[in-house]
Design goal:
By secondary structure, the protein is α/β, with parallel strands linked by helices. 49% of the residues lie in helices and 19% in strands.
């Protein structure tokens, strides 16, 4: 791991302060416990600071479902409004985070791609433990499908069929599916 020089640490601190003042939160890279912890701390701090809207930029391949759940739930928990802005790609657990706000506050930048699919797991151990893990993945699949259906207006049966395999969507397709409300190209277009 590369060491951070005093100049880099100072610049990182400067960027962090500017990001906080502008009320932007970035969710990038793989969703894991560290990302969930950092993101929820920022959301809680911004909510305590002001009732002004928070803008969350999401670009992630997904990751750990429960870490995505943590962010999803905290977005709903805080008192101020949150705008979700998809950029790059919004995949898997990233879609779950993205769906934590009402449709009218889900924006997408023009080159964003979305991916919905069923959860996967790396089961191992004794046969009885593998059976337990398989049951939990099936429950998680049902829960995710119901969330996508509820937030997009699609029937659960359609969502279950769509997530059976990787289901990729462009920005326009995500809008038609009900994942996003509209495309924007400039921050002035945020509601």
């Amino acid at each position: 791991m590369a060491e951070t020089s005093p100049d880099n640490a100072s610049f990182d601190s400067f960027l962090e302060q500017k990001s906080f003042k502008s009320r932007y939160v970035l969710i990038t890279g793989e969703i894991n416990h560290r990302v969930a912890n950092d993101t929820t701390r920022r959301l809680l701090a911004l909510s305590a600071e002001s009732d002004e809207p928070i803008n969350v930029l999401v670009s992630t391949p997904g990751g750990h479902v429960e870490s995505g759940d943590m962010i999803h739930d905290i977005v709903k928990f805080i008192r101020c409004k949150v705008n979700m802005i998809g950029t790059g790609w919004v995949a898997s657990a990233g879609v779950h985070i993205y769906l934590s706000v009402p449709l009218e506050r889900r924006y997408v930048l023009e080159n964003t791609r979305f991916l919905i699919h069923q959860p996967s797991g790396g089961s191992g151990g004794q046969a009885s433990d593998i059976a337990i893990q398989a049951r939990e993945i099936v429950k998680m699949r049902e829960r995710i499908a119901h969330t996508i259906a509820r937030e997009t207006g699609n029937p659960v049966e359609k969502v279950l069929t769509d997530i059976d395999r990787d289901y990729w969507m462009s920005a326009e397709e995500a809008i038609a599916y009900g994942l996003a409300s509209r495309k924007i190209v400039n921050s002035s277009e945020l509601g």
